[in-house]
Amino acid sequence: MTGKDRRVFHPRRFAAIALIGMLLCGGCGYRVRSSAGTLPSGMQSLGIPTFINRTGQYKIEQIISAAVLKEFSLRTKAKINSSGSGVDSVLLGEIRGLSAVPVTFGNQTSGSQTFGSAFLVTVQISAKLTRLQDSAVLWQNDNFLFRERYTMNSSVQDFFSEENPALERLSRNFAESLAGAILDRSKP
Q1: What is the model's pTM?
Q2: Distance from CA of residue 152 to its chain's centroid?
Q3: Distance CA 62, CA 155 (A)
Q4: Structural domains in the chain?
Q5: How many CB atoms lie within 10 A of CB 148?
């Protein structure tokens, strides 16, 4: 092997590549929260059992409950768990409705069949925060409405349902809104 065939490690080149990589990954949707929120009335722990599903959508309660648990765990220093026992307060949720309606229509290339090519999924959720010591309702909203749009691929060979990814995005947005509404109300 000659000297020309060898690759030399240059610390400055490595540092420049690492810096570029960090800058590119910096806009990936992650954000640092300036301070942890607190639960109302000085509660130290919160139970978030799996939401009740009153719809026919399979596992939607698991998707939404997981997003809510994660968001509260990120935004508060309080003990958060998925049980309604052994905690100061409990957040109960109910998924009351779910609908997906076409908002854009398209035509197939062969024939004159019309199909929905973009859909709007809407989820109605109620949530209630209760202090277990005296069963006092600390916060309640019976009419959260969240919507998310998704597209449907008309090609059978390339078909992939976008409904579940849309529901996951919707769940994250709902969890952020719910945590913000509950945690922000306890600030002075």
Answers
A1: 0.70
A2: 21
A3: 30
A4: 37-184 (3.30.160.150)
A5: 22
| pLDDT tens per residue across span 70-127 | 999 999 989 999 998 999 999 999 999 998 887 765 555 555 555 556 788 899 999 9
8, 12, 17, 19 alpha-carbon torsion, rounded to 10°: 160
Residue with tokens 């607190």: 38
Maximum Cα interatomic distance, the chain, rounded to a whole number of Å: 81
